[in-house]
Amino acid sequence: MILLNSNFYNRPTLEVARDLLGKKLVRRMDGVELSGIIVETEAYCGAGDSACHAHRGRTERNAVMFGPPGFAYVYFTYGMHYLLNLVTEEEGNPCAVLLRSIEPLSGLEEMQARRKRHGKELTNGPAKLCQALGIDKSFNGWDVTRGDTLWVENRQNERPSIVLSTPRIGIEYARKKDREAHWRFLLKP
Fold first, then answer.
1. Confidence band for 189, pLDDT divided at 50, 70 and 90
2. What CATH number should be reported for the domain whose range is 2-187?
3. pLDDT tens digits along 3-36
4. Model confidence, pTM
5. Can you give the residue ranges of every domain in the chain?
6. Which residues of 56-68 are buried (b: 16+ CB within 10 A; e: fewer)?
7. Which residue in 44, 134, 157, 160 has a CA-CA distance of 20 to 30 Å to 36?
């Protein structure tokens, strides 16, 4: 296991969002390892990004984003879904990368039982990913560089070959330039 350390996350958010592609997200639950390859991310670049939760300043909800890099920012949305972000850049600069999708590697039966779905619908969205891996608000502020319960691993000799970038999804409220920024990254299928 080669954990990603805080130095990996303490870099420009757009670089981290792209570099997370092909990495392995791991969740250990009740002695079972649930994991998948990260295949889609979105970058949220601090106070200047009108799509970012920290755009209007620090709140109780987004406080983790202002903390050190390499921590999980998990929030609840639409009254029903959890979403997992990883904090980037230096402490005090509220940036993060949303993990949008993974391709399952291990713990498939457990993920299917949790989601009551199979195939493409299993983890092809940020809320689906969290439900499949049992990620909830208890992980808000979790240090993913510890290698315990929830973490991200490097995969040696596994480099994404073709990365696509597109505008982010579901940010209609943001300024036009932020809506149109190609800050969503995905591996070409």
1. confident
2. 3.10.300.10
3. 999 999 999 999 999 999 999 999 999 999 999 9
4. 0.96
5. 2-187
6. eeeeeebebbbeb
7. 44
